[in-house]
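job 3f2a | input accepted
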Amino acid sequence: MTTQTTASKTVAAPAPDTPSGLIGIPAHLARALALGGSVLAVVATFLAWTWTAAFPGDLTYYGYPGGLQVLVLVGGALATLFCLASYGVKGLGWLTPAGADAAVKYAVLGTFATAWYTVVSISAELGGVVNLEPGGHLVAAATLIALIGALALPFERPEPDPIDPEATGREQFKHDAAHAMAVLRAAFSSGSPRPVRTLPSYAEILIIVAMLAVGLVVFTYGIGTEYDELFVGFLITAGFGFAALNRSGLIAHASQISARHQNITVCGAFVAAALFPFTQTDDQYATLGVYILIFATVALGLNIVVGLAGLLDLGYVAFLGVGAYAAALVSGSPSSPLGVHFPFWAAVLVGAIASLVFGVLIGAPTLRLRGDYLAIVTLGFGEIFRIAVNNTDGTSGPDITNGSNGIASIPDLNILGFDLGIAHDIGGFTIGRFANYFFLMLLITAVVVLVFRRSGDSRIGRAWVAIREDETAALAMGINGFRVKLIAFAVGATLAGLAGTVQAHVTYTVTPEQYLFAGTTPPNSAFLLAAVVLGGMGTIAGPLIGAALLFLIPNKLQFLGDYQLLAFGLALVLLMRFRPEGLIPNRRRQLEFHEEADAPTVLSKTGA
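job 3f2a | predicted structure (608 res):
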């Protein structure tokens, strides 16, 4: 007897080896949608998005992008270039050494987020979508089309892990969710970038100059955003743009080129920073610049303690306060009970030596502790310092610091007849008070960077790294752990005190409330530690960039009010979840968090 079977009418699923996208659209159509939507988004920025100038940025003009339209224009142009590179257009292959599809997804996603944020903001602030002009409708539709096309680009899907057939419903759900997350990560991942070919030295130096120029332009634009909506759009565009460049492999190539010319890169970075005051029309944003440098210098000093030596210090801001109070006491301020006025070089020495002494006094009895116990002791020191300067007011204790009133009316510095408190004309540019202190702080930052580089590559620097990686093994190899840690503690404290001497003159006043463990305004110990971890422990550029972000972002997000720390904390949690090694990690820490990465060919003495 013959049994007939009916063929199933269900369409067969794609073979596991067949790449497919998150959305079921053919690859050629998806690529065309991504490119077409990105081009239309660029075109839409030259149209009016609203009929009234009541929305910040005045998006009512035709043919002249302004405000948030400029950010969408930049994002759309970047997405268009990556889309063209994915087609293999001649001359654009250098844009995507690690592949184009992941870069397209991030660039399109950033453009979509910025455009829709703008459209939603216009509708919410002006009272509905009726306030949108054709350009607003076009950019919303174009970026949505581009996003659909980008998400449909094919990628290699990971195989699901096997599961027990007798698994419960909850276990099945966890398995499916884990696989879905693995698929999502694979959709936005890219391959390893091909090695960058060696170019003539002058060409590589020109590339480094171009990178620094782009960095200066981005920083100047971000610090100069005039209203809240524009800064939020800048954060969206900059974040997704950096992710797109990273996935394309351009960041890796830029790192390789700059590594070949480290001294030129470092010098060029300081030259680019020195040009910042000349890009400003007044002293307003130079104020932020000098505070960022103070914060960054202290964070770099903490990086020696935490990043190189691996010592968790939760009271580091106290050393900044020691340097500031020491300099204020000898500044000639009428509030100082000492009544002396030291020249700048002597005040700097007093502040640095005072912090050094406190670092040794605190470190000597406590550095035999490890881990959480050391963190608790340093946290206690930070609070003891604040309470002590608050009580030395002549009533609760000796009259040294004026208690909660602090030391006020600290005079401006005068270095070799150059008064930093008044404006000066240099080459047709007017350099104001904060710009003067910006240049001084930039010089001190250069000194701190030099100390960090030289100490990190020295014998003591290698001992710090050995203690950080495994203190027991380091002690077994003959390293004097206590002595090495005490040196790290003393050097870090000295650098913090050095920055504190300048901070006292910049702020005119030093008070105990400036040196808290945590607060909404940096610098404080929590923000300093976050800057080191966020930027990348053990590197030079990491804490500098982390400090700049952690100072600039809270300053620009003051419109959030009581929700500012909530948003800030949420952003840190997400960053630590998806990039725990920091924004600019050294190779060793990157391998610790990403075991599947290739082993480095060569590690420098500090793993940087």
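job 3f2a | Confidence is low (pLDDT under 50) at residues 1-16, 597-608.
job 3f2a | closed
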